[in-house]
Amino acid sequence: MIVKQLIEVFDILDSADASGLKVKEYLESKGATNVEVVKREKDGKSTDFVKVVIPGSNGRLKGGNAPSLGIIGRLGGIGARPERIGFVSDGDGALTALAAAAKILDMNSKKDFLATFTSAPMYAPMRPPRLTFPCPSWVLPSIWQ
């Protein structure tokens, strides 16, 4: 079951100081060796893009021919501080992609390997939403689209 990984990743993301670097540390603690974090900033706010690549037993990265599996966690922001505190509903894409990557890493640690390599990129906006009625929503500036 993936419940354990969902809770662990949620605990990391549901924080005022959540960051791509904290996610990277978590994934590396689970055995990831290829985690990339790119931070984009504008108007004093930032978005972290996180990508983890997990080699499969018969994937391209090991010279095999198994197809690649991509898990994309691109939905919306994980937080809307200071207007709204806590994890917001748009964060479920990031949460799901990262939890799936953590579960695959857990499987690998138990010697259960997928044949394919897995890429799980996600992004986590850390900027306030544009206020709209009836509630704030995320509108990505053109540099993030």
Give the SSE map.
Blueprint: H1 3-13, H2 20-29, E1 35-42, E2 45-54, E3 69-70, E4 79-80, E5 84-87, H3 92-109, E6 118-126
Parallel strand pairs: 3-6
Antiparallel strand pairs: 1-2, 2-6, 4-5
Helix pairs in contact: 1-3
Features:
145 residues, alpha+beta, 27% helix, elongated
Describe this structure in words.
The chain is α+β, with helices and mostly antiparallel strands and 145 residues long. Helix content is 27%, strand content 24%. The strands form two sheets. It has a four-stranded mixed sheet with strand order 1-2-6-3, with helices on one face. The protein has a two-stranded antiparallel ribbon with strand order 4-5. Helix 1 packs across helix 3. The radius of gyration is 16 Å and the shape is elongated.
Strand content: 15-25%
* Alpha-carbon Rg, integer: 16 Å
Can you summarize the main beta sheet? Answer: 4 strands, mixed
Determine the mean pLDDT.
80
- Weakly predicted, low-confidence segments: 136-145
Tell me the helix content: 25-40%
Helical region count? 3
Oligomerization state: single chain
- Overall form: elongated
Helix and strand element order: HHEEEEEHE
Structural class: alpha+beta
Distance between the termini: 33 Å
